[in-house]
Design a protein that fits this description.
By secondary structure, the protein is mainly α. The chain folds into two domains: about 90 residues, Leucine-rich Repeat Variant (Alpha Horseshoe); about 80 residues, Leucine-rich Repeat Variant. Helix content is about 60%, strand content about 0%. The longest helix has 17 residues.
């Protein structure tokens, strides 16, 4: 069955190839994963994006290197799906490429990279996410605040407090939530948090 599906990935119709990827995403088998990785090189960007999505549905395992490569794809939709899939992959190799993706020309890719980094326990992304709180896109700023809330790292406290003044209400809401996560972690009177976090003004 898998071989038949792999052969169908050579179909001249890209829609057929996309449906093959849906089928392959349901199969937890090395040859199926290998076929999904191969599809990241398809001539159709829709097929490549669907291949990244399918790898994400499989937890991104066994496809991390290929997904990292897909972060350099010429089409932003493929890069966005690759960032999403890497967020679900429990592999530290994804962290630095996702940090680089915070500077992607597409705000959709930057937002997904921030989301993915929020799921990573690695602390290397804290400073890049703090920088992303100044992104030109409100969606990226908001997602960066959310990611920093998950990390609950005291280094982000001042930047999150400043984000409470953001022009976008969604960013302000996420910044407030993230600060709440920090206070929860540090017991409300945190040692190691900047004094400014608990100031009345």
């Amino acid at each position: 069955m898998i071989q038949a599906l792999r052969d169908a990935l050579k179909d001249e119709d890209s829609k057929v190839r996309e449906q093959v990827l849906v089928a392959l995403s349901q199969i937890d088998d090395p040859p199926a994963i290998s076929a999904l990785v191969e599809a990241l090189k398809d001539q159709s960007w829709q097929v490549r994006a669907n291949a990244a999505n399918a790898l994400g549905l499989r937890g991104g395992r066994n496809g991390v290197d290929a997904l990292v490569g897909a972060l350099k794809d010429s089409t932003w939709q493929v890069r966005e799906q690759a960032a999403w899939a890497l967020g679900l992959a429990g592999d530290a190799r994804a962290v630095d490429p996702l940090i680089d993706a915070l500077r992607d020309e597409s705000s959709e890719v930057r937002e997904k990279a921030a989301w993915a980094l929020g799921l990573k326990g690695n602390r290397r992304s804290v400073e890049p996410l703090i920088t992303a709180l100044k992104d030109t896109s409100a969606s990226v700023r908001g997602m960066s605040a959310w990611a920093l809330g998950l990390k609950s790292d005291s280094r982000a406290a001042d930047a999150l407090k400043e984000a409470l003044k953001d022009s976008d209400k969604g960013v302000r809401q996420k910044a407030a939530w993230a600060l709440g996560m920090l206070l929860m972690k540090f017991g409300g009177a945190p040692t190691g948090l900047p004094d400014s976090l608990t100031e009345s003004n």
